[in-house]
C-alpha cells in the first residue's frame, strides 16, 4: 500500500521528529505484523502525534493487520492520551464498518480482561504473604560455650 504524504501537525520540533514519525507510520502499515506492532507501541508513547497516526490507521482505509496494530497502540497509550484512546476504541466499536467494529471490540475485550486479571493477581499476592517470626537461637549458645572453654565440645576419657 502506498502511503500519502502526511501533513505535519505543527507540534513537531524539528526535521528529525518528522522523519521519525514518517518511519513509524510506514512501519505501522508494514505487511509484517511484528514490525507493525512495534511501530504502534512506539507511537503510543508519542502523545498527540502518535494518537493522530494511530487514529488515521484505525479509521482509514488500511489493511486489517494495520488496524489491529493501531488498536494495540491505542491500548498501550500512556499519559493524558489514554482516555482519548479509550474513547476512540469505544466509538470504533459502534462504527458501521465491520472491520473497525470487530477490531475495536476485540481491543476493548482485551483491556477488560487485563483489568480483571490485574485485580486478581494483586489479591493473590496478598494472600500468599506470610509473617516472619523470630526463632530463638538455642543451638548457637552451646557451641560457643564449648569453644570458650578452650577444649572440645565432647570431653574424652
Strand content: under 5%
Distance between the termini: 96 Å
- Which ranges are low-confidence, i.e. pLDDT below 50, for 5 or more consecutive residues? none
Q: Largest sheet, described in full?
A: none
What is the third-level CATH name, the topology of the domain at 15-114?
Leucine-rich Repeat Variant
- The average pLDDT value, as a whole number, equals 81
Helix content: 55-70%
Tally of DSSP β-strands: 0
Helix and strand content put the structural class at mainly alpha
Cα-atom radius of gyration: 29 Å
CATH architecture field of the domain at 15-114 = Alpha Horseshoe
The top-level CATH class of the domain at 15-114 is: Mainly Alpha
Describe this protein's structure.
The chain has 157 residues and is mainly alpha-helical. The protein has helices spanning 15-28, 33-44, 47-59, 64-75, 82-92, 98-128, 139-148. Helix 5 packs across helix 6. It is built from seven helices and no strands. It has a domain at 15-114: Leucine-rich Repeat Variant, CATH 1.25.10. The radius of gyration is 29 Å and the shape is elongated. The mean pLDDT is 81. Helices cover 66% and strands 0% of the residues.
SSE layout and pairings?
Elements: H1 15-28, H2 33-44, H3 47-59, H4 64-75, H5 82-92, H6 98-128, H7 139-148
Quick take:
It is built from seven helices and no strands. Helices cover 66% and strands 0% of the residues.
